[in-house]
Amino acid sequence: MKKIVLIAAFALFSIYGFSQNALYGVRAGYNISNLDFEPNTGSFDNSHRNGFAIGFFAEFNVTEDLSFAPEIQFSAEGAKEEVIRIDYIQMPLFLKYKVGENLSVGLGPQISLKGHDFQDGLQNFAFSGLAGVEYMISDEFFLDLRYSYGFTNIFDEETTLDATNTNIQIGFGVKL
Predict the structure, then answer these.
(1) pLDDT one-digit tens code per residue, 110-149
(2) Nearest CA among 26, 18, 22, 88 for reference residue 51
(3) What domains, with CATH codes, occur in the chain?
(4) Which residues are within 8 A (CB) of 84 and not within 5 positions of it... i.e. 6 or more apart?
(5) What does residue 140 show for φ and ψ, rounded to 5 degrees?
(6) Which of 35, 41, 106, 135 sits at 20 to 30 Å (Cα–Cα) from 122?
(7) Rounded-to-integer distance, Cα 141 and Cα 116, Å
(8) Are the C-beta atoms of residues 25 and 175 closer than 8 Å to each other?
(9) CB 78 within 8 A of CB 99
């Protein structure tokens, strides 16, 4: 399954690879993530987890103020307790709208593939919604803030537990 996600990402990047209106870059971020249990369960210490994210992106101008920004990133999420820590390979698909000279907002879906033990009682795939704001410090460097909310249960169907992942990500990046 990792191969399918990576092939899809490669195809997505190569479709626009020769575009004149493309920017490429890297970004890194600090994660503050947690799990929302339904109903609230006492079986886990559900403290937030501090982690990191690092990835590569492309940004394609659709219009002067609207752009599409697919990304591939590694993100350490889940909760603080060892058994519910989840490291993902993610593909955020941002649609960004420029609201000022240096400020833009974005929305989009995010597809996540678990990047470790596939037989641990946790789902291997996750889908979430993503919202963010980006501030350009200079022509190349930017700061951003993102919030993602999971739409899928992180636990396998064999368990009776139901939880979704939430994550706040504070990032810094460079556009090349």
Answers:
(1) 999 998 777 778 888 999 999 999 999 999 999 999 999 9
(2) 88
(3) 2-175 (2.40.160.20)
(4) 35, 44, 46, 78, 122, 154, 163
(5) -110, -35
(6) 106
(7) 32
(8) yes
(9) no
Q: Which residue type occupies 25?
A: G
Q: How far is CA 41 from the centre of its chain?
A: 26
Whether the Cβ atoms of residue 44 and residue 79 lie closer than 8 Å to each other: yes
> Cα angle at 54 between 49 and 58, to 5 degrees?
135
Pairwise CA distance, residues 8 & 133, whole Å: 26
Distances (CA, A) of 75 to 7, 21, 136: 19, 28, 23
CA distances for 67 relative to 30, 60, 169, angstroms: 24, 5, 21
Question: Among 12, 11, 79, 8, which residue's Cα sits nearest to residue 47?
Answer: 79
At residue 114's C-alpha, the angle toward residues 43 and 174, to 5°, is 120
Summarize pLDDT for 72-119 with one digit per residue, the tens: 999 999 888 888 889 999 999 999 999 999 999 999 999 999 987 777
Residues 17-59 have pLDDT tens digits of 445 678 999 999 999 998 888 766 556 667 888 999 999 999 9
With CA atoms as reference, report the closest residue to 128 among 171, 169, 81: 169
